[in-house]
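ingest -> validate -> predict -> emit
validate: passed (alphabet ok, no gaps, 310 aa)
predict: started
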Amino acid sequence: MSIENSTDTHTNLRIMNWMEIIDNVFHLYRKHFLLFIGISIIYFIVDSVEDKLFKLLWKNNPYGLIEELISYLLSELVIVVFVVAASEIYFQRHITIRDTFQRFVNISPRYLVNVFIYLIPLSILLLIGEIVSAGIRYFSMVILISLLLLTQIVRTYFLIIWQLYAPVIVVEGSMKPKPMRRSRALIRKSWWRVFGTIFTLKILLRAIRIIFVVSFVLLLGMFGLMGDAPVWDIVEYVLRSSIGFLSGKPPPFQSGSTSYIILMSLYSVIGILIKPLHAIAITLIYFNQRVKREGFDIEMKISQDDVLRQ
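emit:
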Protein backbone atom coordinates (compact mmCIF):
# COMPACT_ATOMS: atom_id res chain seq x y z
CA MET A 1 0.00 0.00 0.00
CA SER A 2 1.30 3.41 -0.85
CA ILE A 3 -0.32 5.78 1.63
CA GLU A 4 1.88 8.72 0.78
CA ASN A 5 1.18 8.89 -2.92
CA SER A 6 -2.42 7.75 -2.91
CA THR A 7 -4.90 10.36 -4.06
CA ASP A 8 -7.72 8.06 -5.24
CA THR A 9 -10.88 7.40 -3.27
CA HIS A 10 -9.70 3.89 -2.52
CA THR A 11 -6.42 2.57 -1.28
CA ASN A 12 -3.79 1.36 -3.73
CA LEU A 13 -2.80 -2.10 -2.57
CA ARG A 14 0.60 -3.70 -2.88
CA ILE A 15 2.79 -5.84 -0.70
CA MET A 16 5.10 -3.80 1.53
CA ASN A 17 8.44 -4.82 2.98
CA TRP A 18 9.22 -4.17 6.65
CA MET A 19 10.90 -0.82 5.98
CA GLU A 20 7.89 0.43 4.02
CA ILE A 21 5.56 -0.69 6.81
CA ILE A 22 7.53 1.26 9.44
CA ASP A 23 7.80 4.27 7.13
CA ASN A 24 4.04 4.21 6.51
CA VAL A 25 3.36 3.86 10.25
CA PHE A 26 5.06 7.20 10.90
CA HIS A 27 3.58 8.79 7.79
CA LEU A 28 0.03 7.77 8.70
CA TYR A 29 0.55 8.90 12.31
CA ARG A 30 1.97 12.24 11.22
CA LYS A 31 -0.82 12.84 8.69
CA HIS A 32 -3.58 12.07 11.23
CA PHE A 33 -1.72 13.27 14.31
CA LEU A 34 -4.65 15.05 15.99
CA LEU A 35 -6.90 11.98 15.75
CA PHE A 36 -4.35 9.59 17.24
CA ILE A 37 -3.03 12.00 19.87
CA GLY A 38 -6.61 12.79 20.94
CA ILE A 39 -7.32 9.10 21.54
CA SER A 40 -3.99 8.73 23.35
CA ILE A 41 -4.72 11.67 25.68
CA ILE A 42 -8.18 10.26 26.53
CA TYR A 43 -6.58 6.89 27.37
CA PHE A 44 -3.94 8.46 29.65
CA ILE A 45 -6.60 10.56 31.44
CA VAL A 46 -8.75 7.47 32.08
CA ASP A 47 -5.71 5.45 33.19
CA SER A 48 -4.57 8.23 35.55
CA VAL A 49 -8.06 8.59 37.07
CA GLU A 50 -8.22 4.82 37.61
CA ASP A 51 -4.80 4.88 39.30
CA LYS A 52 -5.73 7.83 41.55
CA LEU A 53 -9.04 6.21 42.54
CA PHE A 54 -7.32 3.02 43.65
CA LYS A 55 -4.77 4.99 45.67
CA LEU A 56 -7.51 7.12 47.23
CA LEU A 57 -9.89 4.28 48.08
CA TRP A 58 -7.28 1.73 49.13
CA LYS A 59 -4.28 3.54 50.58
CA ASN A 60 -2.56 0.32 51.63
CA ASN A 61 -3.17 -1.04 48.11
CA PRO A 62 -4.48 -4.50 49.09
CA TYR A 63 -5.94 -4.81 45.59
CA GLY A 64 -2.74 -4.15 43.68
CA LEU A 65 -3.40 -7.16 41.46
CA ILE A 66 -6.87 -5.88 40.51
CA GLU A 67 -5.42 -2.46 39.73
CA GLU A 68 -2.76 -4.06 37.53
CA LEU A 69 -5.41 -6.11 35.72
CA ILE A 70 -7.58 -3.05 35.07
CA SER A 71 -4.56 -1.08 33.80
CA TYR A 72 -3.65 -3.97 31.52
CA LEU A 73 -7.21 -4.20 30.17
CA LEU A 74 -7.26 -0.45 29.52
CA SER A 75 -3.98 -0.69 27.60
CA GLU A 76 -5.40 -3.59 25.56
CA LEU A 77 -8.70 -1.83 24.91
CA VAL A 78 -7.03 1.33 23.65
CA ILE A 79 -5.21 -0.79 21.06
CA VAL A 80 -8.55 -1.66 19.47
CA VAL A 81 -9.51 2.04 19.44
CA PHE A 82 -6.32 2.88 17.55
CA VAL A 83 -6.88 -0.08 15.20
CA VAL A 84 -10.40 1.17 14.42
CA ALA A 85 -8.98 4.58 13.50
CA ALA A 86 -6.05 3.14 11.51
CA SER A 87 -8.24 0.70 9.55
CA GLU A 88 -10.70 3.43 8.57
CA ILE A 89 -7.80 5.63 7.46
CA TYR A 90 -6.40 2.69 5.47
CA PHE A 91 -9.65 2.61 3.49
CA GLN A 92 -9.42 6.42 3.18
CA ARG A 93 -12.66 7.03 5.05
CA HIS A 94 -13.21 10.11 7.17
CA ILE A 95 -13.37 9.30 10.88
CA THR A 96 -13.47 11.41 14.03
CA ILE A 97 -12.57 10.58 17.63
CA ARG A 98 -16.28 10.27 18.40
CA ASP A 99 -16.86 7.88 15.48
CA THR A 100 -13.89 5.81 16.60
CA PHE A 101 -15.21 5.36 20.14
CA GLN A 102 -18.72 4.58 18.86
CA ARG A 103 -17.33 1.69 16.78
CA PHE A 104 -15.16 0.64 19.70
CA VAL A 105 -18.22 0.33 21.99
CA ASN A 106 -19.82 -2.12 19.53
CA ILE A 107 -16.64 -4.21 19.26
CA SER A 108 -15.39 -4.12 22.87
CA PRO A 109 -17.45 -7.01 24.41
CA ARG A 110 -16.13 -9.53 21.88
CA TYR A 111 -12.67 -8.04 22.10
CA LEU A 112 -12.61 -8.36 25.91
CA VAL A 113 -13.49 -12.05 25.70
CA ASN A 114 -10.56 -12.60 23.33
CA VAL A 115 -8.24 -10.53 25.55
CA PHE A 116 -8.89 -12.96 28.42
CA ILE A 117 -8.32 -15.95 26.14
CA TYR A 118 -5.12 -14.29 24.94
CA LEU A 119 -4.07 -13.33 28.48
CA ILE A 120 -4.37 -16.72 30.21
CA PRO A 121 -1.61 -18.68 28.40
CA LEU A 122 0.71 -15.67 28.26
CA SER A 123 0.22 -15.01 32.00
CA ILE A 124 0.97 -18.65 32.80
CA LEU A 125 4.19 -18.46 30.77
CA LEU A 126 5.13 -15.17 32.46
CA LEU A 127 4.44 -16.68 35.90
CA ILE A 128 6.60 -19.70 35.07
CA GLY A 129 9.38 -17.34 33.99
CA GLU A 130 9.16 -15.39 37.27
CA ILE A 131 9.17 -18.57 39.37
CA VAL A 132 12.20 -19.82 37.47
CA SER A 133 13.94 -16.44 37.92
CA ALA A 134 13.28 -16.55 41.67
CA GLY A 135 14.69 -20.07 41.90
CA ILE A 136 17.97 -19.42 40.07
CA ARG A 137 19.88 -18.84 43.33
CA TYR A 138 18.75 -22.17 44.81
CA PHE A 139 18.98 -24.65 41.95
CA SER A 140 21.18 -25.49 39.01
CA MET A 141 21.94 -22.24 37.18
CA VAL A 142 22.19 -23.89 33.76
CA ILE A 143 18.86 -25.75 34.05
CA LEU A 144 16.92 -22.76 35.36
CA ILE A 145 18.34 -20.30 32.84
CA SER A 146 17.47 -22.80 30.08
CA LEU A 147 13.89 -23.03 31.39
CA LEU A 148 13.67 -19.25 31.61
CA LEU A 149 14.85 -18.85 28.02
CA LEU A 150 12.44 -21.56 26.87
CA THR A 151 9.41 -19.88 28.49
CA GLN A 152 10.41 -16.52 26.99
CA ILE A 153 10.81 -18.06 23.53
CA VAL A 154 7.39 -19.75 23.73
CA ARG A 155 5.79 -16.55 25.07
CA THR A 156 7.34 -14.46 22.28
CA TYR A 157 6.13 -16.99 19.71
CA PHE A 158 2.52 -16.69 20.90
CA LEU A 159 2.78 -12.90 21.23
CA ILE A 160 3.66 -12.70 17.54
CA ILE A 161 1.22 -15.27 16.12
CA TRP A 162 -1.66 -13.63 18.00
CA GLN A 163 -0.51 -10.11 17.19
CA LEU A 164 -3.22 -9.55 14.56
CA TYR A 165 -6.27 -10.58 16.57
CA ALA A 166 -7.29 -6.93 17.16
CA PRO A 167 -7.37 -6.02 13.43
CA VAL A 168 -9.19 -9.30 12.70
CA ILE A 169 -11.97 -8.40 15.16
CA VAL A 170 -12.17 -4.78 13.97
CA VAL A 171 -12.09 -5.38 10.20
CA GLU A 172 -13.63 -8.83 9.79
CA GLY A 173 -16.02 -8.74 12.76
CA SER A 174 -18.52 -11.56 12.91
CA MET A 175 -17.20 -13.08 9.68
CA LYS A 176 -14.36 -14.75 11.63
CA PRO A 177 -15.53 -16.46 14.85
CA LYS A 178 -11.98 -17.35 16.01
CA PRO A 179 -9.71 -14.30 15.71
CA MET A 180 -6.72 -16.02 17.36
CA ARG A 181 -6.80 -18.80 14.77
CA ARG A 182 -7.29 -16.26 11.99
CA SER A 183 -4.29 -14.24 13.24
CA ARG A 184 -2.16 -17.39 13.30
CA ALA A 185 -3.22 -18.27 9.76
CA LEU A 186 -2.28 -14.82 8.46
CA ILE A 187 1.15 -14.92 10.10
CA ARG A 188 1.96 -18.54 9.18
CA LYS A 189 5.25 -18.76 7.24
CA SER A 190 5.83 -15.04 7.90
CA TRP A 191 6.60 -15.25 11.63
CA TRP A 192 10.18 -14.00 11.38
CA ARG A 193 9.22 -11.15 9.07
CA VAL A 194 6.43 -9.98 11.39
CA PHE A 195 8.67 -10.44 14.43
CA GLY A 196 11.45 -8.43 12.76
CA THR A 197 9.09 -5.58 11.86
CA ILE A 198 7.59 -5.35 15.36
CA PHE A 199 10.98 -5.78 17.05
CA THR A 200 12.53 -3.03 14.89
CA LEU A 201 9.65 -0.69 15.70
CA LYS A 202 9.98 -1.45 19.43
CA ILE A 203 13.72 -0.69 19.36
CA LEU A 204 13.06 2.52 17.42
CA LEU A 205 10.37 3.65 19.88
CA ARG A 206 12.62 2.87 22.84
CA ALA A 207 15.41 4.93 21.26
CA ILE A 208 12.98 7.82 20.65
CA ARG A 209 11.83 7.62 24.25
CA ILE A 210 15.39 7.67 25.62
CA ILE A 211 16.46 10.56 23.37
CA PHE A 212 13.35 12.58 24.26
CA VAL A 213 13.67 12.11 28.03
CA VAL A 214 17.46 12.54 28.21
CA SER A 215 17.34 15.67 26.00
CA PHE A 216 14.75 17.35 28.21
CA VAL A 217 16.52 16.27 31.42
CA LEU A 218 19.75 17.88 30.16
CA LEU A 219 17.90 20.98 28.92
CA LEU A 220 16.03 21.49 32.19
CA GLY A 221 19.20 20.68 34.13
CA MET A 222 21.02 23.53 32.38
CA PHE A 223 18.49 25.94 33.92
CA GLY A 224 18.51 24.23 37.32
CA LEU A 225 14.93 22.97 36.93
CA MET A 226 15.51 19.26 37.60
CA GLY A 227 15.37 19.50 41.40
CA ASP A 228 18.05 18.41 43.87
CA ALA A 229 19.15 15.18 42.17
CA PRO A 230 22.35 15.45 40.07
CA VAL A 231 21.44 15.67 36.38
CA TRP A 232 23.96 13.05 35.25
CA ASP A 233 22.68 10.62 37.91
CA ILE A 234 19.17 11.08 36.49
CA VAL A 235 20.48 10.49 32.96
CA GLU A 236 22.24 7.31 34.14
CA TYR A 237 19.01 6.17 35.83
CA VAL A 238 17.00 6.78 32.62
CA LEU A 239 19.50 4.77 30.56
CA ARG A 240 19.62 1.95 33.11
CA SER A 241 15.84 1.73 33.51
CA SER A 242 15.48 1.58 29.72
CA ILE A 243 17.57 -1.61 29.69
CA GLY A 244 15.86 -4.07 32.02
CA PHE A 245 18.85 -6.09 33.21
CA LEU A 246 20.73 -2.90 34.23
CA SER A 247 17.90 -1.41 36.30
CA GLY A 248 18.99 -2.72 39.72
CA LYS A 249 20.51 0.57 40.94
CA PRO A 250 18.04 2.67 43.02
CA PRO A 251 16.89 6.03 41.59
CA PRO A 252 18.86 9.15 42.63
CA PHE A 253 15.69 10.85 43.95
CA GLN A 254 12.81 10.23 46.34
CA SER A 255 9.27 9.51 45.20
CA GLY A 256 7.34 12.78 45.21
CA SER A 257 10.44 14.97 44.87
CA THR A 258 10.73 17.65 42.16
CA SER A 259 13.11 15.46 40.14
CA TYR A 260 10.68 12.53 40.35
CA ILE A 261 7.64 14.60 39.30
CA ILE A 262 9.45 16.16 36.32
CA LEU A 263 10.86 12.83 35.13
CA MET A 264 7.48 11.08 35.42
CA SER A 265 5.88 13.98 33.52
CA LEU A 266 8.42 13.56 30.71
CA TYR A 267 7.68 9.82 30.59
CA SER A 268 3.94 10.56 30.43
CA VAL A 269 4.36 13.02 27.54
CA ILE A 270 6.47 10.66 25.44
CA GLY A 271 4.11 7.81 26.38
CA ILE A 272 1.17 9.77 24.98
CA LEU A 273 3.11 10.58 21.80
CA ILE A 274 4.28 7.04 20.96
CA LYS A 275 1.28 5.05 22.25
CA PRO A 276 -0.58 4.83 18.89
CA LEU A 277 2.38 3.61 16.82
CA HIS A 278 2.29 -0.09 17.73
CA ALA A 279 -1.44 -0.35 16.94
CA ILE A 280 -0.94 1.42 13.60
CA ALA A 281 1.87 -1.03 12.82
CA ILE A 282 -0.17 -4.17 13.51
CA THR A 283 -3.02 -2.74 11.42
CA LEU A 284 -0.71 -2.22 8.43
CA ILE A 285 0.87 -5.66 8.96
CA TYR A 286 -2.63 -7.19 9.01
CA PHE A 287 -3.63 -5.63 5.67
CA ASN A 288 -0.23 -6.45 4.20
CA GLN A 289 -0.63 -10.11 5.17
CA ARG A 290 -4.13 -10.25 3.71
CA VAL A 291 -2.95 -8.84 0.39
CA LYS A 292 0.05 -11.17 0.38
CA ARG A 293 -1.71 -14.37 1.49
CA GLU A 294 -5.17 -14.11 0.03
CA GLY A 295 -4.35 -12.12 -3.07
CA PHE A 296 -7.73 -10.45 -3.22
CA ASP A 297 -8.45 -6.80 -3.79
CA ILE A 298 -9.69 -5.34 -0.51
CA GLU A 299 -11.23 -2.46 -2.44
CA MET A 300 -13.88 -4.92 -3.71
CA LYS A 301 -14.82 -5.70 -0.10
CA ILE A 302 -15.29 -2.13 1.11
CA SER A 303 -19.01 -1.94 0.25
CA GLN A 304 -19.63 -5.30 1.90
CA ASP A 305 -17.76 -4.20 5.04
CA ASP A 306 -19.81 -0.99 5.20
CA VAL A 307 -23.03 -3.02 5.15
CA LEU A 308 -21.76 -5.30 7.94
CA ARG A 309 -20.94 -2.32 10.17
CA GLN A 310 -24.44 -0.83 9.88
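The CA atoms of residues 85 and 100 lie 6 Å apart.
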